[in-house]
Amino acid sequence: DETEFRNFIVWLEDQKIRHYKIEDRGNLRNIHSDDWPKSFEKYMKDVNCPFKIQERQETVDWLLGLAVRLEYGDNADKYKDSNPDGAKNADNTAKNAEPLINLDVNNPDFKAGVMALANLLQIQRHDDYLVMLKVKRLTQDAIAKANQSKEGLPVALEKHILGFDTGDAVLNEAAQILRLLHIEELRELQTKINEAIVAVQAIIADPKTDHRLGKVGR
């Protein structure tokens, strides 16, 4: 909803981000103005948001992240030593560490989930659904693939140029890793293509000749 979106932006600026002085927030607060999109676009530039105003979801996520960082920065000592409510006593800590302790295996939803999982994994059904949970289904291809060990040289990510900047160091590193993995897959594909070409050339270069028919080839 456009009105809710604009109110949300104003609330973030008023309550958490506070990039503008109070007297400079008038245009942003005037959510019913036809010029609000221009004011919002200027605001995004002023806070150095890397996304365009048309990218609503990305913009919301980025502004929320900025608000959280600023909130933490203003109250670092308060949040630094805080613990989750469930960790205030040993019992709650144990329960949080073992989420399956209080699982009700007789719950109809649990049974339905087991059956759905069995169908997904193509596990043969059993009258006792608990028995199905113990089944390990590994195909021969999966076993062979798991037994293949691939060793390579360590890669220094800083030596590989990504070509673009996400604005986040962690995301940049993840993108570099994905790009290197993609390159590896392309190399494997190229190797298979080369092998196929060699096989075809071997057939073409060694034809069977039948002089009686006056033909060369298979």
Automatic annotation (TrEMBL):
Domain of life: Eukaryota
Pfam families linked to this entry: RLL (PF10036)
Family: Belongs to the RTRAF family.
Protein name: RNA transcription, translation and transport factor protein
Protein's organism: Nothoprocta ornata
Gene that encodes it: Rtraf
